[in-house]
Amino acid sequence: MSEQAQFKALLPMLVFLLLFIGTGIGLTLCGAEMPFYQLSATVAIIPAIVLALAQGKEGLNRKIAVFLSGAGEINIITMCMIFLLAGGFASVASAIGGVKATVNFGLSLLPPSMILPGLFLIGAFISTAMGTSMGTVAAIAPIAVGVGEQTDIPLTLLLGVVMGGAMFGDNLSMISDTTIAATRTQGCEMKDKFRMNLLIALPAALLTLAFLWYAGSSGQTVRHEDYALIRVAPYLAVLVLALAGVNVFVVLLAGIVFTGAVGMASVEGYTALRWCKDIYGGFAGMNEIMVLSMLVGGLGELMRHHGGIAWLLKRVNGLAARLSARSPVKAGECCISLLVLLANLCTANNTVAIILTGKVAHEITSANGVDRRRSASLLDIFSCVVQGLIPYGAQLLLAGSIARLSPLSIAGNNWYCMALAATAALAVLFGVPRLRAPLPLAGGAADAGPAELTGPAFSSGADRRA
């Protein structure tokens, strides 16, 4: 880090949010059509990047190098590759009629009242098996779009349900990189964190299912159409591979190849050349969110380099010290939750937010007598809540791109993340649940700090989640 902790390093992100979200809200109030598409986020972020480059005393070349290192960070490139493969798979599946066939197949099996709960459960199962919300959104969002075309269910609600199911597994899966980061920084076992996490997340999931069932029980207009079962096969294959825990890159690549083979076998005039053109068309459709993800990554790295994240860590750590006199455990848990929430808002990456805040969270845990299973769960929960609700996060950008919707409108329908935030806040407020035999406060693996998370053990976990 080139400079000491300072608040002004966070100003670029505030400028970006003010321009992007503020413009969208202003145009909404003026009655403009598709208000959040009038100003592209990739343009709105440019003034913020310029401001970040203007900060600091180092030379411009050095600051540009910092920006580029953030834009090319491994998690950012991983997301961009998933964007490309997801775009190619969705494009080919749509071209051969696979999405429509899958939708009609699903609608023929489910009663109208179970469409929304069923979509949530499928997303939850897949994301838990794969450990990735990105792969889940890539696989399920096109189906949700197809359901929206054949029912009167609002498309924003359908995509919000997909997002909720995707974030359920991202938070709980044993092979999710957020789980690996949270348990490594806090020095607890994955199975212990999973049990604690599940006791907080399960009520939110059940509450969400009840809401979704009620939303569908009032009656939905469903238009049933004929379908060719062979065109459903690629999606069934993708779902089976995902549930088997296969790497998301393999899942999407296999989906592209299998879908192309099915198209050439079942669609008259569908050739290998047409298949290649459809893949490229899907790639091209992901250009904007790829560029935005890289720009957000670069901006986040500049803010970290200039001391913005350090300023957050210092302030929240100080708050924990001041509040601990009255109720040390509750104060510690509140500050850990606030810490990762703010870090995720700035970095737009839940894994990075956990890594950046893990060391300070562990210090707060030790100083206030917080159970390390609780601190690991809270880090993971609140980072996933924020990631599922910020319109510039990769998951919402991908969902919005597939559905041609504003990410902000989808976030407003992500009921699961809202319910999870509420149940987690209540868990902190009332000190529940508590597992028996609290872990000792001594550090173990957590004392190593976030710097050690870049080693082979962490990389292998992150690769599985990719």
Keywords:
mainly alpha, 22 helices, disordered C terminus, 74% helix, 3 domains
Structure description:
- Its main location: membrane.
- It is a multi-pass membrane protein.
- This protein has 466 residues and is mainly α.
- It folds into three domains: 65 residues, no CATH class; 168 residues, no CATH class; 160 residues, no CATH class.
- The protein contains 22 helices and no strands.
- Helix 1 packs antiparallel against helix 2, helix 15 runs antiparallel to helix 16 and helix 16 runs parallel beside helix 18.
- The longest helix is centred in the middle third of the chain and has 28 residues.
- It is globular.
- The two termini are 28 Å apart.
- The C terminus is likely disordered.
Strand tally is 0
Gross geometry: globular
N-to-C terminal Cα separation, in Å?
28 Å
The residue ranges in which pLDDT falls below 50 over 5 or more consecutive positions are 441-466
Number of domains: 3
Determine the mean pLDDT: 84
Q: What multimeric state do the chains show?
A: single chain
Approximate helicity band: over 70%
Radius of gyration: 22 Å
Element-level helix/strand string: HHHHHHHHHHHHHHHHHHHHHH
- Give the strand content: under 5%
Domain Na+/H+ antiporter NhaC-like C-terminal: 77-215
Main location: membrane
InterPro entries: Na/H_Antiport_NhaC-like_C, NhaC_Na-H+_Antiporter
Protein name: Na+/H+ antiporter NhaC family protein
Would you summarize the structure shown here?
InterPro entries: Na/H_Antiport_NhaC-like_C (IPR018461), NhaC_Na-H+_Antiporter (IPR052180). It contains 22 helices and no strands.
